[in-house]
Amino acid sequence: MRRLTFLTLSTALFISACTTTPIVDAPQIVLPPETVNTCLPVSALTKVIIPAETQTRYATTLIDNPPYEPIETTVKQVRVVKPAQIIYVDSNNQEVIDICEPDVEIGDTGPGVGEILSDDNMGGDAG
To answer: Which residue intervals make up region (Disordered) (predicted)?
Structure first.
């Protein structure tokens, strides 16, 4: 019993005499990533113009004109549904958007959606 008490007491003294020291991580060296130029020059690309999608509508106006025949006028309107676009493609016909020159025209061009391209009077009865 004395041995057990002595052993327990000595273990308790040994544990209390130890101090803990924090583990210090080695300093990490961070290297900045190497700059890689991913953009392509316009001279290496092909410019492609996708035409605008349009919709043609006809509007007929009928005006009463007594005692004569009514005046009928038909108007043909061509409206833009989707504007024309300018894109650039590489040698594999893949669209490229990362172009080195900042002043290159890219994207929608020309008349916008809903704008009228032509408004032709198709004739009618003038009475």
So the answer is: 108-127
Instruction: Confirm if 109 and 84 have CB atoms less than 8 A apart.
Output: yes
In a 13 Å sphere around the CA of 49, the CA atoms on its Cβ side amount to: 6
Find all residues with CB under 8 Å of 106, minimum gap 6, and list them: 86, 87, 88, 97, 99
All residue ranges of the chain with pLDDT < 50 are: 126-127
Report how far residue 54's alpha carbon sits from residue 52's, in angstroms, rounded to the nearest whole number. Answer: 6
What pLDDT, in 10s, does the model give residues 70-82? 999 998 989 999 9
Question: The whole model's pTM is what?
Answer: 0.53
